[in-house]
Amino acid sequence: QVFDDQGKDVTPRPLFQPDPSSVAPKQGKILVASDYSAVTGSGFLSSFSMQQTSGVTTSLAEQGGSCLLTSWNLSDVQVRREEVKEQLTSEELDRRVDIYLTETETFWIFDMPSAVMSVEAEDAGRVLERNKIYVDVCKNRVGNERFVERMMQTLNGAPKTKEVQCDKIITEDKGITVTSWDLYDSFNELEEEAASEAEGRRVTVVSSNISLVSGQRDEHTSSICDRDSTTSSVLETALLAKIHEEQEDHSEAILKSEKFHQDLFFMERILMENVFQPKLAVYRQLPVLIEPVATSNTGDRATAREEADPEKEEHEHEEQEEEEQKDVFIAPSVLSNLSKGPEELVPPSLELLWSYTCDLTNGRSVSSMAWNKLNPDLLAVGYGEFDFKEQKNGLVCCWSLKNPMWPERVFHCEHGVTALDFSAVSPNLLAVGMYSGIVAIYNVQSRNNAALLDSSESSDKHIGPVWQLKWVEQDRGTTGDDKGEILISISADGRITKWFIRKGLGCSDLMKIKRTVSEKKKTTGEKERKSEALISRQAPGMCFDFHPKDTNFYLAGTEEGLIHKCSCSYNEQFVETYRGHKGPVYKIAWNPFSTDMFLSCSADWSIILWHQESQKPILTFASTAAVVHDIVWSPKSVFIFVAVNESRVEIWDLSISTLDPLVIRFAAPKVKFTTVLFAKTTDCLLLGDSKGQVSVFELQNLGASHSNKV
After folding, report:
1. What is the pLDDT of residues 358-399, one digit of tens each?
2. What single DSSP character describes residue 693?
3. Mean pLDDT in the chain?
């Protein structure tokens, strides 16, 4: 027994309780050898160990080398012995016993859900949609300023070593055999070069030495002649090598000189003028110079050939014109209005002169074009994609008529270029708007490709693509800063912003385009008004155009299909709202002659002619089921404008027909027209496409009306 400090019995009690119905043996019986041997080792030890665990070791007594057990402990041993002594009969051994294996209850120790799911599972669609959203979020995160990077604690993975086996490194030994005379000549070559330099500085004449060694010289004449010949050949080789090195150094200096680069620049200009002389003469409306035919002395055969060549050239020229006219279509209704008789009919057409393209622009989409305000031969072209999924780095090229094969200036941008324009006050400044919302200003006079100013560090910069920007001469304003030329931009974030140059590029908002509730929704109940308030309050802006006479007023087209007339004097509300388009308005253009009229084109396949005093459309032009990307008025006629669809360009003359375009030219297969621009001083048209080409066309037989009224 075990007692604690307070005298309480804390002896551990046995876990095994014997069966009370079992017969208790006589006390004091000694366990004999036969009984001990009959008990299995496992049974006896388990029982004995259990008794030891329960602390009943005090009941054992040592007597005569035997072990005396208690009464209840001995009975347990006898029961186990009897169970072991039971033997099975032969019948029981031969009897077939069926054993059934059943699965026990599963105990989950660790459960980790799988990150892989079968495509045929029920939730496969939902998981694929979540994965797609996560991929889009990861793509948008790169270069996006709306994602903020912050520090957080993460668990680093365990380091892992990886062995790489490579091919055996093979080494080779190479040698060369050199004769004694090679060593002698190489060694003397250095001494002879030093001696030749010393002989040029001093001249000595020693006649006595010559007389003393005259006899010896005769004996060794042959050996001396051989040595002199070897020495002269070595000197000649060294001299030629030195002259060659001097020529190489001199030629390299010439190639790197600025004078040589300038001469090459002028030579390139002269060659381009000679190659493109006929087409440039047509562009500038000058007579085409014909090169004189070289005379030959081969007799009558040459004369006959010279007489036959003009007919052949004329026939080839006619075939070429026929092929070009295949892409040009003229509506029958237009042909009937062109002239009174078929003998007087001269249909208008478009003739391709050349294309501005190079290796840098191949595969890029032309997004915008602008002429320089001072130099009419300088064209700025912006390259960028309009689709969000196809975005890549942007490019700006300044092309000159003097070299249509390579741009004069190239500016690489981090994001796609969506709009650009030259300044009128400072013609060397080129403003560029990008898909990321950045507005940058470049100096085309400098050969530095970096931007002079940009809005990347401005706190009020655009957070959406800059769809259009323009330098505007503004005479009236509330403050002195508003007077003069300002840069205006419109963006998909719903803001029309004016930019000013101070220490950097700052800005302020002219107008925040608010969403306009349609007339139908105004008559509905209160629930629809509440649902409308959940949408963003600002509508994305797509385009704008200032009034040609009063620059205090301008028009703004939105993604909702509405056109708002706004004023620079106040920015709280619109002056007028024109409703007519069912899709985003891509371009607005005031008529340069009739300043109360303006055109608009949209993604709803239509072109609408408006009057600023009327909120209803005057005329609607819809010639094809395609998006109209760009429109532009002719600088020489009040009736003529050009529209660009995805697959064709249309020339409209409202004085002839308001139903069908005057001329239609189709684009090449898999090519889409994106933008259009008239030449400043000539009857030519520039078309940009989705493959990076800016094609220059001549407008033939297109008579401009001198009337200035619609």
Report:
1. 999 998 999 999 999 999 999 999 999 887 777 888 899 999
2. -
3. 76
Taking 3-state DSSP, the helix, strand and coil percentages for the chain, each rounded to the nearest 5, stand at 30, 25, 45
Q: Which of 441, 425, 575 is nearest to 505 (CA)?
A: 441
Residue 517 · residue 575 · CB < 8 Å: no
Q: Name, in order, each residue with C-beta under 8 angstroms of 624's C-beta and a sequence gap of 6 or more.
A: 605, 645, 648
Encoded tokens for 499: 């930019």
The predicted model gives 109-113 an average pLDDT of 84
Alpha carbon 323 to its chain centroid, in Å, reads 37
pLDDT for the residue 448: 85
* Element holding 588 (H helix, E strand): strand 585-590
| Number of separate helices (H) and strands (E) present in the chain | 15, 31
The per-residue pLDDT for 245 is: 63
Cβ pair 578, 597 in contact under 8 A: no
Are β-strands 694-700 and 684-689 bridged in parallel, bridged antiparallel, or unpaired?
antiparallel
Bridge partners of residue 381, in order along the sequence: 369, 397
**Spatial contact of 338 and 347, defined as CB atoms under 8 Å apart:** yes
Topology given in CATH for the domain delimited by 349-515+535-700: Methylamine Dehydrogenase; Chain H (2.130.10)
pTM for the whole structure: 0.59
Distance (Å, whole) CA 465 – CA 542: 9
Look up residue 675 and give its two tokens. Answer: 């933008």
Distance CA 11, CA 2 (A): 5
Q: Is 60 exceeded by the pLDDT of residue 49?
A: no
CB 614 within 8 A of CB 629: no
**With bands split at pLDDT 50, 70 and 90, how would you rate the model's confidence at 491?**
very high
Q: Are 696 and 680 in contact (CB under 8 A)?
A: no
Lowest average pLDDT, out of 142-151, 215-224, 513-522, goes to 215-224
Q: Where are the domains of the chain?
A: 349-515+535-700
Q: Across residues 314-319, what is the average pLDDT?
A: 52
Q: How far apart are CA 401 and CA 391, in angstroms?
A: 30
The span from the first CA to the last CA of the chain, in angstroms, equals 126
Q: Which strand (E) or helix (H) includes residue 576?
A: strand 576-579
475 has pLDDT over 70: no
